[in-house]
User: What shape does this take?
Amino acid sequence: MINVPINDTVAARFSVAKETSDGWHTNRFFGETYGATDLNAFSTAFRITPNDNWMIDLGFRGNYQDDDNAPGRCNVYPNQAIVDNLANRNPGGGMNLPANDPRVVALHPPQIYTGPTYENGRGQWGGSTNYGMGVRANIGGHIERLYPGAILDMWAECEADAAAGDFVFSSEKRTFLKLDNENINVTVQWDSAGEIGAFDNLNFKTIASTHQTDYAYFQDRDFSPFPLNAIGTPPVPGGARDRRTDSLELLLTADANDRVSFILGTHYYNDFVLNGVNCLEIARDNLAQLSDPNSGFSIECMPDGGTGFDWLPYPRAVPGGPESSGRAGNVSAESSAVFGHATFQLNDNWTIDAGIRYTSEDRAFNQTEFAAAGRVLAGRLRLQRQSGYLGKRAFVLLPAGLCEVARSRDLRVSGEQLAGISLR
Assistant: This one.
């Protein structure tokens, strides 16, 4: 940080920061060191005091982050139930056949795990598997849809990571985080510096600022070499969230005399978050057809922001299970306010404070949420309205509802259940 007195009326402050790390984790899948961070920050501020009455502050701050995103590791920690289901020991019931039924065994031979199980271990992801032709059974959940033994193969990779060291994992994804923040602020203040007219002192202050955030990321959520669970801003690597926040405040502070003072002010705030445009606009243009549950109508759109989730890959030996999904749109908030506050010093023992404020606020939420076969994070989608239900390849339009909150850098969830593994 450097403070620079430029002349009698102008002073400046400059600061620069840089933080880099090559990471200390090893990704066995790529054979590379992982977890690199690269943060660059810059700020500058100017103060201008042309005389005893005026003071002007100008400032800029920028932070620019380009990381690998947070590493993690899968740990084999199954409960007994998933081990029994993999071994075709589920007794069935309801619509499910016993998993040792010859028709089930022909499609899913028993998968035998010989490691330890845990009373508080992780269970399976998903329920029964429907093979068609009346053959339905619980054989360990969604991941077994890829092929019989997929879960045991995943566990073997997780155990190999653990055997290789404390900071070893095997993600097949090159994940990243790009986060840029820029802020500009201006404060202009005039002070009478003493008696003026009927007042002992007057002060006018204007505070204005604008803040811009650009955010893009891609993160693995199973940390194995299997493409099971990922989240990011589509399309990877080009998608992003765009957020801009503007504010303006005007303040008048007055000392009427040694007993009475007051503040009058107004405030304006505008916040706009853009999470993708293309899918939202195409959905709006075709809302009537998409709203008909029996239309089978489809659209094509390009996820270009927001949040996308990629689940199990294709091809799958057994169809069904979770499809990739995403959301896109925009959220805005605009408010304005006027307010006043007065203080009356009655005597040395009593003070009366009175205030009033009026605020007007408008909020808007426009969002599409969808599920689609394929890779939401990879690019263009065809979204189709299915007859009678909102399931696989369904399109859901939500004009109002949940708002996705910007996620933190570390996207791991302690204890997340994903087919007998815990994540850390």
